[in-house]
Every structure is written in C-alpha cells, then in structure tokens.
Amino acid sequence: MTGETIFHGTAWYYARYRPGYPQELFDLLRGRFELDGTGRLLDLGCGTGQLAVPLAPLFEEVVAIDVDAGMLAELNAVAPANLRTVQGRAEDVVAPPGAFRLATIGRAFHWMDRRVLLARLDRIAAGLALVGDGQPAEGELPWWDAVQEVVREFLGPRRRAGTQGYFSHSGELWTELLADSPFGAPEEHEIVLEREWDVERVVGLLHSTSFASPPLLGDRMAEFDDTVRARLAGFEQPLRERVFVEVLLCLRPARDWAGRR
Length: 261
Fold this sequence. Notes:
This protein has 261 residues and is an alpha/beta fold. It contains eleven helices and nine strands.
C-alpha cells in the first residue's frame, strides 16, 4: 500500500508532539488482562507507537498495523526487538484463530469500519481495549479555542477529524456497538490527568493532526505558525489542560474464548 493517507506529512510531528498515555493506563491493562510477558499483542491504527512501544515488554510479540507509511517509519526507528510493523488497513488483518491475547486501538477507532473490524477481531483476539481522549468542547479551554479560530481562518470551518466525547461518532455510541458485538458490553474506565503545554509544542501538535497538516497548509505554514504563536502569547504560560483518557475494555472468560478458536 503506497497511497497517501489523511495523515500524510504528519508523522514526524506525530512522533514528537503527540502526548503519550499515562502509566496508569498501562497498569490498568496489565492488571485487567493479566499481562505477564507471554502471548501476542495486535495494535491497530498504531501511529508512531504510543500504545505499542510501552506495551511491548508485556508480550512475547507485538504486531503494529497502520495505513500510513510515514507513521510506521517513525515507529520502526524506536521499535523494540519484539515489535514488527505491517502497513495496511485494520479491517484487512488476517491471522489464525486465537492468534492474539489482546487487540488495542488508540485514538483511531473512529477512522475504521467498526462493525467489520469487530467481526474480524472476534476470532483472532481474546480481548480488546479501546483508548482515546477527546478534544475540549468549545468554550471549555480558551487557549484551545484561540488555536481553533486560527485553523478556521487558514483552512475553513470544516475540520477533518475530532470528537469531543471520544467514545461516540456520528451518533453511534461505542459502548452500545461493543455490547451488540461478540465481545459484549465493555468495562468503562476514565483516567484524569493534567497536561502542560508551551507554545512550540502546541504548534507541533497541530501539524500532527489531519486538520492542520503541513500538506494542507502548504506555503502558508510559516504564516500559520506565527499566527498561532501570536494568539497564544496572550495566555498565561504554561498552557494547561485537564484531560480525560477514556478506556473501554472487553474481557472474555477463557471458557468462552476457547469455543471461538
């Protein structure tokens, strides 16, 4: 697969400016799925490895899949020995029944054909973890509102991605989607943390997104960056954000999973 994706041109920024997940998340996954260094992990829509790399020590092997070649190149540069990457769509994953102890998807489920994917994962993954953190709603975070106004000025009002509450999309609640799938109703968890940003990190974060990527900005990128810097200069530094990391976990008893192999 060699075609450009919606994230074309963002991978360098994604690897350096997208915030990682908190340690509490990895402690939660280790405890709930009893991860002990055995078995295999399937990380779908892996990006530059925000889930795959920290989880790698808890598995014998990690398979990380993404459609974007640039993301995989960044991941390969830091990947541990037990992690291999595959370029392709999550929905096209092929593996023997029972091949994976756990499948994870972070900040990417909304891009996928979710029902097709869940049906495919049913036979190849014993457990499933969906992880995400939504964008602040308008009015909740003034400095982010100022950034979004710059995006609209340069690129128009239509964003190419983003949800405020992460576990829904176009009116579809993912808790209900999972409950209707072979995985069954998920456990719901929330991890609350505070993040601090400086202006340059915010500029880099914007270029990691599908809605303010370098290709979209083209030769206006430097002007865009300077405008963001100017708008943020009026806010108290560092820029602070309260983040809600949402987690859905599907755990299936061994006796139920054994019947699907």
